[in-house]
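Case study.
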Amino acid sequence: MQEPQTDLDLTVNGVRHHGRQVPGDMSLVHFLHEDLGLTGTKIGCSIGECRACTVAVRIRPGLPPVTRQSCMTSMRHARGWEVTTVEGLETDGVLHPVQQAFLDGDVFQCGYCAAGFAVAGSVVAEHARRKRDERENGQGGQPEEDGEGRQEEGSQDTRDLVDTVLGPHVCRCTGYERYREAVHAVALAAQDGHRAGTATAERPPAVTGTPPTAAPPLGNRAVSTVPRLSAEESQRLGYTPMFDDPTLELIRLLRDGAEIEHSLLVQYLYAAFSVKVPRFLQLAGWPSHRYGGRPLHLMGVAIEEMTHLDIVNSLLVALGSAPHLGRQQFPYEQDIYPFDFVLEPLSLHSLAKYVYVEASPSAVDPDQQHTPEDRAFVTRLYEVLGSGPAPTPPPNQVGSLYRKVTRVLELLQRREPDRLDYPAWFARLDVLREEGESEHFTLFRALFEGTHPALLGGTDVWNPDSPDHPVLPLHHASGLPPSGQPVPDETVPVLRHLSNLHYWAVCMLLDQSYRRRGQFHNAARRHMTGPLRSLGTALAQRGEGIPFDTFVAGYAPGLGDAENLRLCQGMVRQAAVAQERYARHLPADYAHTCALETLWELSTA
Amino acid sequence: MNSMDTRLRKVTGGKVYASDFRPRDLAEEGWPSDCAHALLLRSRYVDRPFKGLDLTLLPADLRPDSVVTAKDLPQPPYRNQVSAKNVQALLPEGEIADYLGQPVAIALYGDFVRFRRAAQELREDAGPVIYGPPPAAAASSGTDPGTATEQQAIEADLNEWTHRRFTGQVRQAHYLLDHTESDGYSVWNRGRIDRFDGTSFIRDDRPDIEADQLFQSIEAETADPTGTQVETTTFTQQTDPAFLEPEAGLAWLDRTTGVLHMLLGTQSPNGDVLDILALLGGPDHPIVRSVKLTSTDCGGGFGGRDKSPFPYFLALAAVFSTKPVRLAYDRREQFQGGLKRHGSAVRSWVRVGPDGLLRAVRSFIVLRGGVEANLNGPVLGLAALHATGPYRVPRASVHGIVVERAIPAVGSMRGFGIPQVVFNLETALDRLAVTRLRTDPIAFRLANVLRPRDSAHPGTGDVDLAGTPLRFHLANAEICAAALHHPLWTGRDDARERVARRGDGTLYGVGFACCMEAYGTTQDSVYSAVRVTEDGRAEVWGQTIDMGQGARQSLEHVAREVLGVPTAARLGVVGPFERFAKRLKDLGAHTDPAVKISLNHGASSASKTAFFHGHVLREACRALLRLRLLPAARTLLEEPGLSDEMLLAAWHDGAVRLDGRPPIPLAALVRELRRTGRETYVLAHGYFCNGWSQATFRDGGVEHRAFIDALALGHAPEDDPPPLPPQGPLTPPPSRGPGGDTVPRSLYASAGHLIGVEIAPRLGTIQVVDAVSFLDAGDALLPSALAGQVEGGLVMGISHALHEELPPETGTGPFVNLDRYRLARYADVTGIRRETVFVPLPAEGALGAGQPVMRHKGIGEATMTSVGAAVANAVAHALGHTDDRCWPTRTPIRLADLPLPTDGRR
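After joint prediction, the assembly is written out as follows.
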């Protein structure tokens, strides 16, 4: 559905833009182009692959800048950021040393990628300068007097930094070497302290955004101050909560919600990869990289589940709780739903489950259907579900959960009116429920009934023997190697194993990201749309599904923040090690630079 | 804005490319600031009829403000066609699409946010585009191009074509050559073969028995099992130009004047304007009177913007929009609807005599094209002409075909068909030398290369595959000799051993491949203009455009070399040259059957700037000097007797600097010209076809003979100045042989690559680690730009050889992006040990006696052409040349297809 407007608060090239709203689903690059009229940042692919759209971002003042792909960043995620675009690299009319080096070295040809390279180069230069500052301030590193070996090592570090940051960039005209040499020279100069001209890589913005105040930690309110739930409150809730403390109840419900959204996300992804391509690509939608609008295919729904997970986890964090990326290993127990949830290829039966779970209670209540078509649909639904005329136990749709969340949040608002930005959260929860009950339901019903445009012209589409059946019978198996044994050196086990590593890395990155105002959202997304997509496709071509095993240690197993960040790095590093170890099994479109780039980004945190 | 300013803008984020502009940026040119946004809705099927649009399927707020469909294009005045007659611009209701992705409608939105939301939805799911059921027959006969794999389909086509079987209307190109005797069969001696009709070759509408006999004779020779020969079948993949800026543009129909304003980055500005006018019905259109095209620099081109269908849709959107409109593809639309490079299948027989010299080549070429809406024919013609490479082949039989399919247009991408045939021939020769002759493959090539006419020994020269005597400079021999003695080549076996001793399973090998690549087109007709200004500068107007190849800088450099003053070039100019051409046509001297000098306007390709545009601009500058600036200098110096030679010798850095006299700068000369009402602007036309045209002009008592054929003096481009009448007849170049047909090509640049690869079976990778480019570029106009082209051409060649592969669903929807189409990124190709060896031109330049001294050749494409084959030959060396399978036969080269010596095979 259409994202609500989001409050604009963005500093671009030192100028703060705030005090109005912009569409939350607008990408940062479109905002730069169409709203601010800054067209220096280029669009090459719109999905974060080519890096023409690279901007430098500090998500909080004082943090070192990192590169971000402005084409795959939506405005709802960019609040409070400081962004430097190619237009902002000059200082007082003097070119940034990277810009000057690009001109002096004749490094570009058509020049369309130059802006992205220039911004990325300025980020490299800034990191090199910080390294020097740390050295001069005695914060680690060795003095240059240590001799040539040390200098060479420093130079190699710089070379590695340049290669890591520029590695994924695409240029179609040049041989890249001139970019490499130009940025390397500027980085070395920045690191050694003789910087060309008066330009500086870093400039504090004219006005900095005020970071929102952190949520009060849990446990600083005495037990005695928690009032008991009144009868009236209980009545308003419409159900009996487990806890009298609305915060605790919300956390319970939201963690449940996170787990459900996560499970649905994984199931829909799995189903998307089970679709026969290219004929039914429109149904799979897995080349999609969208940021809003109604979902039109399985990938669109999966992406929305991703944003739902985002809303739920953000609310958890706002309540002072840890984010929750865990979920049960499939299959789910039957006491939550009237049927199993398993990772399975798309089928009429799995569609019936999706229809049911996304529905509003009235949409699948046999007594509330008014047209013959609707009545036939509901009858058929329960037939396929095999659960008789109406489900027992009673419906447990996702939407119902969020109705509860909303009501408990209203209770919290009455009790602690200043604690949260309640209207914003209500709006986001409405979006979440509406997307499920209306849009996901509509899509799945159209698929269930065979009226989706992708199924046009086919007959008996859900019969696996029909030539128009859109699904590959994917085989699901765990990617965990037998305890104490290596991953078999064969393509399918390797692809499964590496999918798990990237999946776990995504969960850990997201966990870290929710704790750090979305700092690693881009990175998580890169792993999903890059390696995980590529591995999923390659597995599907072999009739296999992504295993999506759960990681028994959870996604924040560390003692504290610093430990968790290190463990996350460890997981990404493991993916990097595994991709080299098993390189010959990897598909041609596997993005080798992804993990290395993430490691660099994690190192800047 | 000169090239310095443009380059500065490119690193600071200033507006340069078409995609940067919005109508509000063009207020000074009178554009209203509002901007509508257009989106193309495309057909996803070629097996079922399009039944119309049901926009109620869209959420109400995402429905377009207006929609343009075929119904809005009544004929006349409209001609609902893109360049080819059989392809409709917009598909009418009730019809089956001509090709996958054919636009069915243009949706227009008045504001960006709504447009983008709707675009996001419609690009992913064009549900509102309604189709009827597929006809029963089509559904079962598998007409869906996605049914057979690309590979299976092209193999089947090649097998049919090798037996000279084909179905339907197809484009063909044939070269039959017998150079064992001076009057032997060739295009030069007999004329062009039109086609093979299933029984006979047809020339001049008659069966050509001589051609049939030659064909059979070569067929019999290559079927004889006693000789030494190799048969080679290779496949190259379809690729996307993947220029980084997706096509974008702005257009606005000023209804008060009838001028359709367009701002666009295109390689074919002149052709686009003509085609758009034809689409709109020319003078019959009720509103549009003319098209005013502003060309911007392109964010890459590589042939993918040469007669692209994009400008048609932009123009149509504007004609039906009440305000300026922007059309900008996203990458997925670019992949879906943009021009591609032909995939190929080539089968050849190369036969060699006991003396190690080539005897015969027989070759069948199948190019997989799209719907015929671009340059299938010319690409095929050039591929066929290059099928015997830079080699002396006494008897050759080459037959090409383009299979047109219902997919988006496949066009004229960089290389123009040549890399596809070079991949076949160069891997074939390598294998022939190594496995059959057991000789050094470069030495074998060197013994067989074509050499140009030796000016000291007339009549000694070779001919190309068309039989055209090679009049002009070629460096095939020099390039092979340089490669033969290069340490990378001489040390290749030692290096292979060294890497093997690492013990990690890595294999190393070195390979060589070379080519000679025609540059320019068959008949190059070029216009250029220059004006000098009172502030002592020069302005240049050119037809070429800048897409990264440095055209602007090059032309500015040429004008500066002659005139010695700062210059700014305007490129992609449409208007003044067309008006000048009209005047020349009306005068009739060029179109006289005895002369036949083409006055057409060509497109911009990467290999044309230095040689063609540079030459005509240089002639224009020289004419301006001799006919206007020098006479003005005489006046100011009050020395009417000073000769041109003395004055030209004294012309340095934009001023006449005679000993003992104060310098007279250009600015003073321009003021003097202005004072006396004399012209400061000159426009010239030149024509190249196996040589430059020539003419003599007389003005004010000065006789000026030059290698151009039309000249005009004026004050400004808008003046539409009349041509100076030439003195005597125009001298056309010797463009025809005894057979009466225009020579296909006469200008070739030679190039070669030595490539070192490392194969890591453990990692599944093939990596280029060494590269030496050998180039016959002549003197670099701009050394740094040339070196950049050499680096970029190498990397594009590597990317084609090792990385790029279009997913099968390209075209069926906007499904492909750079995540799955992996072209070589920074991390893939940095760190190559690289070197370039330039082969110098002789003193007389590229053309020799009787022609202007030309010091530059066109090598924008040759930098890339032989890379793929050299990579393949390096792979074969790394694999130990153990058997024929060591030579890769398809691109992208994948380890899985190769016989790895260890158990590391996948």
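Observations recorded in class. The two ends of chain A are 34 Å apart (CA to CA). The mean pLDDT of chain A is 86. We will return to this complex in the next lecture.
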